Amino acid sequence: LLESKPIVRILEAHSGLTGLIIETVSVDRNGMKAEFDGCWISSLTDSTTKGKPDTELVDFTSRLDTISHILDVTTKPIVLDGDTGGNSEQFAFMVKTLERLGVSAVIIEDKVGMKRNSLFGTAVKQKQAEIPDFCYQISSGKQAQVTDDFMVIARIESLILGAGLDDAMERAQAYIGAGADAIMIHSKASEPTEIIEFCSRFRQLDNRVPLVVVPTTYCMITEAELIDQGVSMVIYANHLLRSAYPAMKKTAETILKHQRALEADPDCMPIKEILTLIPGSPKPKKS
Ligand code: SPV
Ligand code: MG
Q1: Has this prediction a pTM greater than 0.90?
Q2: pLDDT in tens, 51-60
Q3: Which of 110, 149, 264, 280 is least surrounded by Cβ atoms within 10 Å, i.e. has the fewest?
């Protein structure tokens, strides 16, 4: 996909149902069918769905359960948010397991110690990994994989942690040298300025690999602009959960307020629709 499309478009999934949305939703855009190319299994939304903080508290075994629900009902590539990947021995096994399952790529972030969600930035204590240690982490994963198809993507947290563009570029070069198949650069800035600066410096690298971005806070940037910047993959990292939660909360409040469900009903999908939503469900007889 990375070789055949100007940009690969990935949306967050945290359950079989959200996987099905990614699998099936399409729109007509000027006579062309537009759809998502694959799923991002986000640590933030997987953890939040389980009512847990995004600190690697939801362990790999639980993450595998989510992955397996999504794999059961989708055919599109899966990019797993692998958090830090654990230690290098754990990461090697993670790669083997994911590859065997048919996951396409894992993204690991260059942090050590208690991992916090990147969107906290420097508001909470988080520590970036030393460059040689993270290079070892990448190469441990690459050595563990059996086929050529699986990708280990290195995620740079320098802009998140205030280490700056020069540090981000130094890390990009080191991680590519260690065998990273792609680089993800993350930012929590409210404008895309620093990401655009990174992209223009990254484009000058001779040995560059595909570049991945996650425009959550700088969401005004368009896919066409990202293509112009040389970005190969865009991840919409949390949008299905962020849109579902307010809708569910509103329904719960409406029922409490009116002491019945009538007023909430217009916000709910028809029963007939939910009964037949899952492919293979029996079709009710026409009444
Ligand atoms: C996630 O979706 O869990 C990510 C991206 O890692 S972010 O939440 O922006 O750190
Ligand atoms: Mg995450």
Answers
A1: yes
A2: 999 999 999 9
A3: 280
